[in-house]
Amino acid sequence: MTDDRFPGIHHIGIIIKKDQSTMTYLFFIGCFNAFFFLALLLQKQAKQLHDRILMFWLLYLAIATATYGLSIDVFPESSLISSGIIALFLLHGPFLYLYVSALTANNKTFNWKSIAHFIPFVAFVLYLIVASLFPEYSEGIRVDHVSEPVAKPPFLFIIFLLLTALSGPVYFFLSYRKFKRSKTSSLNFSSKDINLDWLGTLISIFGIVWTILILIAVIHHLFHLFTMEFCTNGLFLSLTGFIITIGYFGLKQKEVFIGLPLEIDTKTENTSKYGSSRMQDAELQKCYRQVNAYMTLKKPYLDPDLTLPKLAENLNVPTHHLSQVINEMHGSNFFDFINQFRVEEVKIKIQDPQFENYSLLGIALESGFNSKSAFNRVFKKITGTTPSAFKKSLPSS
After folding, report:
1. Of 54, 66, 287, 298, which is the most buried if we count CB atoms within 10 A?
2. Domains in the chain: ranges and CATH
3. Which stretches in the chain have pLDDT values below 50?
C-alpha cells in the first residue's frame, strides 16, 4: 500500500529498486566471469603456484560478488550479514599480494607462513559468529551509521572495521612495491616470455580506486555523508571490474589461462623425467644434429607460440628425447634454448638493410618475441647489453 499524500516517495522507491536490480545483474556478471576464468584455469596443464593462488582468488571473487548480489536487498537491515560480507574485503588484499609474490618470484611451493595473511579474516568471522550468540552485545554491530543507535558499537568490532579499511590500501601498496622491486631485480620475473606490465597497471588503478572508496566509507562514518550502500556498491563494483580486467589481460596474455610447458632446470629433474627412456650417446648425437639442422633451416623459433611438444612433433621425435638433447647437449632449458636463436635472429635483422625501417620492437616481433618487455629482458640476459646499445655499437654503413 502506498501513501497518496506523498506520491514522490513511491516513485523514489521504484527508482531505488530498479537501481538495486541493475546492481544485482552487474554483480552476477562479475560472478559468471570469475567462474568462467576459473574453468579456464582448471583446464590448464602443469599448473604452477601462482595459477593455484589465482584459482582460489577467482573462487573468492565469485562467491563475494554473488553473495552481495543476492543479499543487496537485505544488506541494510541485517547487521550481522552485512558485517560478514564486509569481512570478505579482508581477503582481496592477501590474494593479490600472494599472487604477485608467487608470479614475480617464480615460487614453486607454498609457504605456510602465508596463511598468516588470512588470520584477520578468520578472526573477524569467528568474532561475528560468537557475537551472534549474545543478542544484547550484537545490537551494536552495524556497518552503517544510524542517527539513534540501539547500542554503542563494541570496541573490538571497531578494531575489525579499521583493519578491514586499512587492509586493501596497505596490500595494494605492498603488492605494487614487490612488483616494482622484482621488475628491476636480477630475477626478472621468470625465464618465460610473459609480459607482466599489465599487472603493475592493474595494481595501480585498482589500488587508487579501492583507496578512494575506503576513504568515502570512512567519511560516511565520521561525517555521516553518503550512504553505506553507496560505499559497498562501489567496492563490489570495483571487484567486478577487477574480475573483468584480469580476464581481459589474461586472455590477451594467454600464458595466464593456458600456460606453457614447465621448464626443466636441474639434472635431478632431468634424470627422473627421462627414466629408462634416456638416449644413448650415439642416438643422442644423431638427435642433436637433427635438432640443429632443423633450427637452422626451418627457423621454428620465429613462431612466438612455439612449445616443446610442438617442436618435438615437427621433428618427429619424442618430447622427452628433445628435452634431453636441449638440456644435456646445449646445457639449457627449452625457453633459453629458443630465445638464444631469437636473439641471434634479432642481431642479424638489425644489420640487414631490408629491416632498416623497422623499429627494434618490430624486429623483435619478426624474430619470434611476443612482447617488448620479454625481448629487452632476454636480449640483455644473453648478450649483456640492451638492444638499443647493441645497435648503437654497430659500425655505421
Report:
1. 54
2. 16-252 (1.20.1070.10), 267-393 (1.10.10.60)
3. 1-17, 185-193, 260-276, 397
